[in-house]
Amino acid sequence: MTILKTRPAAVTLTPNAEARVAALMAAAPEGAIGVKLSTPRRGCSGLAYSVDYVTDEQKFDEKIETPGGIFYIDGASVLYLIGSVMDWVEDDFAAGFVFENPNAKGACGCGESFTV
After folding, report:
1. N or C: which end of the chain has fewer CB within 10 A?
2. Which residues contact residue 65 at a Cβ distance below 8 angstroms, ignoring those fewer than 6 apart?
3. Distance between CA atoms of 16 and 21, rounded to whole angstroms?
4. According to the model, what pLDDT value does residue 44 have?
5. Is 78 helix (H, G, I), strand (E, B) or coil?
6. C-alpha separations of 72 from 44, 50, 52, 107 in Å
């Protein structure tokens, strides 16, 4: 008998992040099936966080079902993100996703990119 265990998601979304995903999906362009987090090579430290709409599911993407819609993590980015917490933060001057990533060894001065 084989017992399959559900592994925890690579990234934990805070309630604020889940609410933002719901808001994004409520305003999503036609054909969007979810929101996807990836870590493209960019910035002075090497990798950046990118959140975009997606219109098709990729084979190796991690899929997280949230109350407001499906959140995907790019399959090639999962290893850089394991154990991360994603939050949505707003103040008087800015709003955006903020990441607490235990895999990041450094970040650039402007906070736009990180190294692992």
Report:
1. N
2. 71
3. 9
4. 63
5. helix
6. 26, 12, 10, 24
* Amino acid in the structure at residue 16: N
Residue 83 is classified by DSSP as: T
Distance of CA 22 to the CA centre of its chain: 14
Q: What is the pLDDT of residues 20-50, one digit of tens each?
A: 999 999 999 999 999 999 988 876 667 888 9
Nearest-CA neighbor of 112 among 13, 51, 46?
A: 46
For the chain, list residues with pLDDT below 50: none
Instruction: Please tell me the distance from the alpha carbon of residue 33 to that of residue 22, in angstroms, as a whole number.
Output: 12
Q: Which tokens in the block code for residue 49?
A: 């966080």
For 26-75, give the DSSP string. Answer: HTPPTT--EEEEE--B-SSSSB--EEEEESS--TT-EEEEETTEEEEE-T
Q: What is the pTM of this model?
A: 0.82
Tokens of 91: 């103040």
